[in-house]
Specification:
558 residues, alpha/beta, 4-stranded mixed sheet, 19 helices, 25 strands, globular
């Protein structure tokens, strides 16, 4: 059977004018700034003026991802459409896709099949220019920093201790480590430098955690760009960069409004990666979605050990949010990979491999239930190659262990395939709840907080600090940053820091290579394994298949 591609499905959709979508989200036209016919920026003043109570917050997360795919964003969108089909007033809050994966190996991040946000091509490419603004603000700060040194270095900055990097929203390994400022005194101070991908920039994290322009400016001013010759931190505020950076970001800070294929209002705003950043859409977009709908469905990147942990321990802690229910997405294909099956064999029924992979799902469920004490449901996202026996196997084994499990067919059926899941989510949201707790106390030491995440969330036995990491922790503690939450950068493919350890590994130790502060964002970044803040392109980049015809119609985007 031939299936339409995601872009073909999206291009067949008859989108509603964005003003109609805004009215469906209870947004007065005075707050709507259209970007063409089907996109708009929403004035944040709406948050101050609306008298609507906040709705219920539903977090969608997933098992540890594999190349076989999980469909977390697809499930998020399909669930929202399902809630709408059963009569609920609902909004969606999602991240914006990064151009790196779009042109790399993963492709876009606007959902899939019949559960997508549209206009799909715009959202996956330039959209409303938010990422360009973030990159410009990041690189303005870098330019001001190097210019300050060039013009006499009144702040006594040590060029060897500069921590701020330039960024570009593209997978470009060639830029990871560079030497710049060459060509003589007039062209700057020669030094080692490098680029991060834009979604790993601290500006992205600041942007997504800011609650207003005032808060944005305060966070930007705290960003540490390097250290002096006597090890004193130097900030963006010291460089007098904050006003100009905010000028570049002021319009980008307004949440974007689009729609699903079925016309559900969707706020798509901000996009930090979850394996190297905190992996959640903006606080402002989430708050706006909550205010404009009785139910808001949002997602956090990669598996629950990354995106959900950071959503709960960082975003919820900072923004005062508490999810009313959590959906954990799993696929038969991914669980079979966690059970040791090769990617080329996933189309063949294998109940033994499926059974071996289920512990990965169960550990994520245990974390949501026993660490955070949140009500949850497993959504089995069905692929066309899944057999009935495999679907029955996973549902029966999960339910035998007390794990509530629902079959989701939103990829093939859109909102109709998410109605059963929607009813269960409503039941969880309306039921009695335990008190929400975090996975660690902020008053613990930096080392103790890292260890708590590794033991309680990953299932490891402890951590190993490199000498550099130990020294960095001591420095950050002396500077007064020890009370900040932790943002772990690690592989998305395993609970551990080793991507080859699939399933639910035990007795492993996570090696902490580097520890740095994102003072503007308000968290400490912990780097593990071989994780890099600038990805590279694969052997066959997705970009090679993308094209545009003479009428401007894009093909090959997925």
């Amino acid at each position: 059977m031939a299936y339409l591609t995601d872009i073909e499905i999206a291009q067949q959709c008859e989108m509603k004018p964005i003003g109609e979508i805004a009215r469906a989200a209870h947004i007065d036209e005075a707050f709507v700034e259209p970007y063409g016919h089907y996109k708009a920026k929403i004035d944040p003043a709406l948050l101050k003026q609306s008298t609507r109570p906040d709705g219920k917050l539903v977090l969608v997360t997933a098992i540890t991802p594999t190349p076989a795919g999980e469909g977390k964003t697809t499930t998020t969108i399909g669930l929202a459409d399902g809630l709408r089909r059963i009569g609920k007033d609902v909004t969606v809050a999602l991240r914006e896709p990064s151009l790196g994966p779009v042109f790399g190996i993963k492709g876009g991040a606007a959902g899939g099949g019949y559960a997508q946000v549209v206009p799909m091509e715009d959202i996956n490419l330039h959209f409303t220019g938010d990422f360009h603004a973030i990159g410009a603000a990041n690189n303005l700060l870098a330019a001001l920093l190097d210019n300050h040194i060039q013009q006499g270095n009144a702040l006594n900055i040590d060029p060897r201790k500069i921590t701020w990097k330039r960024c570009v929203d593209m997978n470009d390994r060639q830029l990871r480590f560079i030497v710049d400022g060459l060509g003589g005194k007039i062209n700057g101070t020669p030094r080692e430098d490098g680029f991060d991908i834009t979604v790993a920039s601290e500006i992205m994290a600041v942007f997504c955690l800011a609650s207003s322009i005032t808060d944005l400016k305060e966070r930007l001013s705290r960003i540490i760009v390097g250290y002096t010759y006597d090890d004193k931190p130097v900030t963006a505020g010291d460089l007098k960069a904050v006003g100009a950076m905010t000028a570049l970001l002021k319009d980008a800070l307004k949440p974007n409004l689009v729609q699903t294929l079925e016309g559900t209002p969707a706020f798509v705003h901000g996009g930090p990666f979850a394996n190297i950043a905190h992996g959640c859409n903006s606080v402002m977009a989430t708050r706006m979605a909550l205010k404009m709908g009785d139910y808001t469905v949002t997602e956090a990147g990669f598996g629950a050990d990354l995106g959900a942990e950071k959503f709960l321990d960082i975003k919820c802690r900072m923004a005062g949010l508490t999810p009313d229910a959590v959906v954990i997405v799993a696929t038969v294909r991914a669980l079979k990979m966690h059970g040791g099956l090769d990617k080329k064999q996933l189309g063949v029924e294998d109940l033994d491999a499926l059974t071996r992979g289920i512990p990965n799902l169960l550990r994520h469920v245990r974390n949501i239930r026993e660490v955070y004490h949140l009500p949850s449901v497993v959504a089995v996202n069905r692929f066309p190659t899944d057999t009935d026996a495999e679907i029955d196997c996973i549902i029966e084994k999960c339910r035998a262990l007390g794990v509530n499990t629902i079959l989701s067919t939103v990829w093939a059926e859109g909102g109709k395939g998410g109605e059963e899941l929607a009813r269960e989510v409503v039941r969880l949201c309306e039921g009695e709840k335990e008190a929400f707790t975090f996975s660690y106390d902020l008053n613990l030491s930096i080392e103790e907080k890292i260890e708590a995440i590794v033991k309680r969330i990953y299932g490891g036995k402890g951590i190993a600090l490199t000498p550099a990491a130990r020294k960095q922790i001591a420095q950050l503690t002396n500077l007064g940053f020890e009370k900040l939450p932790i943002c772990v950068a690690k592989t998305q493919y395993s609970f551990s820091d080793d991507p080859s350890l699939l399933g639910a590994p035990e007795d492993f130790t996570v090696t902490i290579r580097n520890v740095k502060v994102s003072a503007g964002a308000g968290f400490i970044v912990v780097l593990t394994g071989d994780i890099m803040t600038m990805p590279g392109l694969p052997r066959v980049p997705a970009a090679e298949k993308i094209d545009v015809d003479e009428n401007g119609k894009i093909t090959g985007l997925f």
